[in-house]
Amino acid sequence: MNIQFFVNSKPNGLRQNIKPVKNIDFDLFPITDVETTNLRGKPMEGGIWTTDDGHTWIKHCLSYPLLLKIKSPAEETGWEMYKLTVKPGTKIYTIQSKEDYNYLKDKYLLENFLSFNYLDWEKISEDFDGVRITNQGLKETKGDLFGWEIPQTLWFRWVFEPPEKPTYVPIQK
């Protein structure tokens, strides 16, 4: 996994200054609220997301009209795609199975409510540079990591060689 792709809908969207991840704030989102369960799989903010194949993210956006509305690229440029080379020695935690997820849950559980587990992304980011989920990991953890719909990596810090200029993928609706 030494190559990753960052896809953005806005020109010059790749930022090398990555905001730290923040856990869910249960004062803002009470754990008993139904909507809060939608926030259980990801940090509230921070990090950047990549995929092994940038086209996977574009296809995902195109298959969800609401997401496409939020992530729609500029008509004149299309999708901005950066090829990123991961530096050697980068510490990535990969979720390929339910056991891999259970390790994160057992070691980094922030809160459990009913059957929903909220992970402590801030602590995870202290131990790893990124967390990756594979297709197999998605199948085995369905429902555990809400919001991880495609194989992807959440990066907590900049661990890439200097990026080349982006390529542009035309809009295909």
- Into which percentage range does the β-strand content fall? 15-25%
Helix/strand/pairing category: alpha+beta
Q: Which overall shape is indicated by the principal axes computed on the Cα atoms?
A: globular
Strand count, sense and barrel status of the largest sheet are: 4 strands, mixed
Low-confidence stretches: none
Q: State the total count of DSSP E strands.
A: 9
Radius of gyration: 16 Å
Instruction: Please bin the fraction of helical residues.
Output: 10-25%
Strand order of the largest sheet: 2-8-7-4
Query: N-to-C terminal Cα separation, in Å?
Result: 30 Å
SS element count, helices: 5
Task: Give the helices and strands as they follow along the chain.
Answer: EEHHEEHEEHEHEE
Mean pLDDT: 86
How is this fold's topology laid out?
Blueprint: E1 3-8, E2 48-50, H1 54-63, H2 65-71, E3 79-85, E4 92-95, H3 98-108, E5 109-113, E6 116-119, H4 121-127, E7 130-133, H5 135-140, E8 152-155, E9 167-169
Q: Mind explaining what this structure looks like?
A:
By secondary structure, the protein is of the alpha+beta class. It has 5 helices and 9 strands; from the N terminus they run E-E-H-H-E-E-H-E-E-H-E-H-E-E. A 4-stranded mixed β-sheet has the order 2-8-7-4. The protein has a 3-stranded antiparallel β-sheet with strand order 1-3-9, covered by helices on one side. A hairpin with a 2-residue loop joins strand 5 and strand 6. The mean pLDDT is 86.
Short summary:
Helices cover 24% and strands 23% of the residues.
